[in-house]
Amino acid sequence: MPLVNMKELLAKSDAGFAVGAFNVSDMEMAMGAIKAAEELKAPLILQIAEGRLRYSPLELLGPVMIAAARKCSMPTAVHLDHGRTLETVRLALSLGFTSVMFDGSHFPLAENIEKTREVVTIAEKFGASVEGEIGSIGGAEGDMASADIKVTSVAEAKRFAEETKVDALAVAIGTAHGNYKETPHLRIDRLKEIHEALAVPLVLHGGTGLTREDFRHCLENGITKINIATASYDNSAAEIKAVHKAKPDASYFDFSDAICVGTYENVKKHMEIFGLEGKAALYN
Ligand code: 13P
């Protein structure tokens, strides 16, 4: 199965599952995510956020992600998460990313619409799809400035979707990036209203730390893509520490394996929760 467009992956997910979009920062994390997809026969989205490029320059990691997706026998999209600048969006597209997110949520609505439209026009030339964001998801993905939660309004989401023609829309319903300091209060009521008012696939950010029950409510009310980052980073770091504890003379390659295993375990766990097992068959 070749590298696929994110739009195609999301088009089938109203059948009671959501496609997991897993952030990766190196080859080992990409390998771990792919291993999980192969084992569960699940579709996959590999992504990296602009706020993480300080550690993993896009010119270097991007080609690795594309090669990993091509190597995977399950349908896999490669996505730029939280793109902030047109320069990074263009670079991702020219490297072959099949979708980009433009996060203009910190701009006033009209400006967010205008800038996102520009990204849609650029992405069209590459045959790639675009995710936008309306409202404000809490916390920060990497080096981004931390944001407060501003729950997405139905009217703004409708206007944004109609005027930008994005292929996917990230909505703020009470989740935040990173580990939760307090139990999140999810606005499933608002998600339901947005889903009823809009035809565009909806995206949930800030997946780390949500319960199975939270995910189930989101799946049942229109979420078709779920982003998971921190849980993979944390599980990989925990795996490295466990290897070091069990084997004080561990080599570089033991730690490299540990990153892969930590990501694999976390991706597999979330793919099962998102109902993805066996769903790659839908794309044949
Ligand atoms: P978490 O780090 O909370 O899993 O959020 C991931 C995310 O939304 C990436 O955009």
Explain what this protein looks like in three dimensions.
- The protein is globular.
- The protein has 10 helices and 8 strands.
- Helix 8 (212-220) links the parallel strand 7 and strand 8.
- The protein has helices at 6-11, 27-40, 58-71, 86-95, 109-126, 154-164, 188-197, 212-220, 230-246, 252-273; strands spanning 19-23, 44-49, 76-83, 99-102, 129-134, 168-171, 202-204, 223-228.
- The protein has an 8-stranded parallel beta barrel, surrounded by 8 helices.
- Helices cover 46% and strands 15% of the residues.
- It has a single domain (6-283), classed as TIM Barrel (Alpha-Beta Barrel), CATH 3.20.20.
- The protein is an alpha/beta fold and 284 residues long.
- Bound molecules: 1,3-dihydroxyacetonephosphate.
- The site of 1,3-dihydroxyacetonephosphate has 16 residues, from strand 3, strand 8 and helix 9.
Distinct bound molecules:
1,3-dihydroxyacetonephosphate
Q: What characteristic shape results from the CA principal axes?
A: globular
Q: How many beta-strand elements?
A: 8
How many domains?
1
- Looking at the overall shape, the CATH architecture is Alpha-Beta Barrel
Q: Note the beta-strand portion.
A: 5-15%
**What's the level 1 CATH class?**
Alpha Beta
Spell out the helices and strands N to C.
HEHEHEHEHEHEHEHEHH
Helices, by number, come to 10
Mean of residue pLDDT values:
96
What value does the Rg take, in angstroms?
Answer: 18 Å
Helix content: 40-55%
Q: Report the CATH superfamily.
A: Aldolase class I
Largest sheet data = 8 strands, parallel, barrel
Could you please say which CATH topology applies here?
A: TIM Barrel
Distance between the termini: 8 Å
> Spans with pLDDT under 50 lasting ≥5 residues?
none
Major sheet strand order: 1-2-3-4-5-6-7-8
